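Model: You mentioned two targets. I'll fold them one after the other.
Researcher: Yes, keep them separate.
Model: Target one:
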Amino acid sequence: MCIQDDAIPTISLRDSDSEETVQRLRSACIEVGFFYLEDHGIEEELITDVFEQSKLFFSLSKPSKKALSNPALIRGYFTLDGKIAYGADADGDTKEGFYVGRHFPADHPEYNVAKLKGSNVMPSPELTPDMADCEKFRSVIESYHDKMCELCFRLVQL
């Protein structure tokens, strides 16, 4: 397969067990570094919900967003020009972000800040009074994170 320099390949997971799919994925990663993924199994409704909740989150007031930050775990909100895990002298990011990971409550045996195993920082009526439905945000974002982790595990096993 020949990939044009300016083209990002699209890979379908409809037949992920085929050798052709595996070779296309390998080629995309080595030759281009990126690829679009279709037939991945993530429900369109969930994707739409994530975009909707993201728009609602990023339209919150700055104090509400900043209340949802845990730099030690690289979780929650990160500001425009904020520094995530770079060196102290590194330039900040050119984007805002909201980061989640596998959730470990503080009393969980695997909780370990040094290994970035900790609690997600989610909106709540106390922290984000300008967010109408904090529970919906949490539910959608955690569901999306779980589905994306499943997809990633599926991809690395090809």
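Model: Target two:
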Amino acid sequence: MEKQVGKVKREQLLAMGLSFKYFTNAIEDAKGQIYWFVYEYGYVALDEDFFLLVKQNIGDDADM
């Protein structure tokens, strides 16, 4: 199960060096939303400007 980490602006992610082109895994939830992961940290778009960050516990199933 994923744990919510927080809501963050797109500009903040870009300023920290995140490139949306690169990811290690993608998971689609029951609602059809795609969570993009870089190792155990993932993000999903809430709207054009904000993302929800999640942390996947190592060893957990990928099911949402």
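Researcher: Noted. Anything on target two?
Model: The first strand starts at residue 2 and ends at 9.
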